[in-house]
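Annex B.
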Amino acid sequence: MRLGEHPILNFSRGRKVTIYFEGKQIEAYEGETIAAALHAAGIRVLNYSRVEGRPRGLFCAIGKCSSCLMTVNGVPNVRTCITLVEDGMVIERGQGELTKDKEIPKFGKARKVEGDIIVIGGGPAGLMAAIGASDAGAKVVLIDENHMLGGQLVKQTHKFFGKREQFAGVRGIKIAKILEEEVRKRGIEVFLETSAVGIFQEGDEKLIVAIRKNEELIEFRGRAVIVATGAMEKSVPFENNDLPGVYGAGAIQTLMNTYGVKPGERALIVGAGNVGLILAYQLLQADVEVKAIVEAMPKIGGYFVHAAKVRRLGIPILTRHTILRAEGRERVERAAVAQIDENWKPIPGTEKVFDVDLIAIAVGLRPSIELLHQAGCQIRYVPELGGHVAVRDEWMETTVRGIFVAGDSAGIEEATTAMLEGRIAGIAAALRLGIADESWVREIEKAQKELEEFRSGPFGQHVVEGIKKLLGVRA
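Sarcosine oxidase, subunit alpha: predicted structure tokens.
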């Protein structure tokens, strides 16, 4: 169902349209994705696995997994979580296969777009990179595969910490609008619903091959590229963890806070880091009951202020607990959890079963480095940064000259650090190309100092250690 009133958000929906799901008329609104419209209509099973025929549902909601692939207007393997509805659209379950009566999409001759610096990703890091590079005198082109700018910011209703210059006291949804306005004000060329599929070297230029709206092939050319593709949800192994109703935390935030769709009635959250804690009171804002938060570690991983707020709201936080299984046939109906011992084994006799239709997985993110890997950047596994990341220097340049990285794709941190890294990468790219003069080095040093201050607390020490490993390899 769609949300009406919300204590913070006002949902402005577009024109009402009709889509057809396996012959059934579904009410939808322009500006929302296929997956969001289907969820609003109570449809959770989006697909079935090919071999076992197990039901599949939305998981990440940002186009980075295969759980929402469906056949749309006869075209198989469409990512319905980032594809907008259109009036008369026909949607079918199954990833589908191309047959003689289904033509392969013809892209025709590639359109060419040129700039000094191409920024891939329109989240906090990409937006700040584009702004920084533009301020330093570069012609910037920004591309993002979503239909709106802002990345993770567009779903964050809480107020940020930090300094005033880092948007302290401002909600994430507002920060997204502020940064978009800054990008538009500078005349930066923006391409939405555009997925980069490869980065190549061609002479002195970087060639980025991208597909826009699954219809148009575009070649973006620039002398430098900034990759700010963010991250994707991690999961945990437990029985039936593939049932519809098991979501990454970000997908739940997208449904609730971006599209105004209630994701369920009763929730269990796995993970008591900042994301899990913040998600708890965001669910309450959407009138979803939160049964509990389970955390395998002996103590809560998020900020005390978030944990205190959750406890004041009466939500139990069960440390030293893990999820054992999800129960249900076509979707989640219950969740079983148990206490664990020092060896991370479930303790017999401690099992609890919660009557829930929603399990939120908030156990962290992993950097999206696929483009960086494909482009030949040196990759290293650094657990402190969330997994595999590109080796880079203090100016965010990778081992491939002219390719920079920023934000969660450089290592999992906060949106604030993503914005600071983005500014460093944008200005550094302009300096490397000889567009900006040496006075801009002071701007990089200022951002680096702010990063150092932000990471100086106990939650930033592991990140500092991870970055040291990367800089050591680079040297």
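The chain has three domains: 16-92, 111-232+366-474, 246-365. The CA atoms of residues 6 and 285 lie 7 Å apart. Further annotation is deferred to the next reporting cycle.
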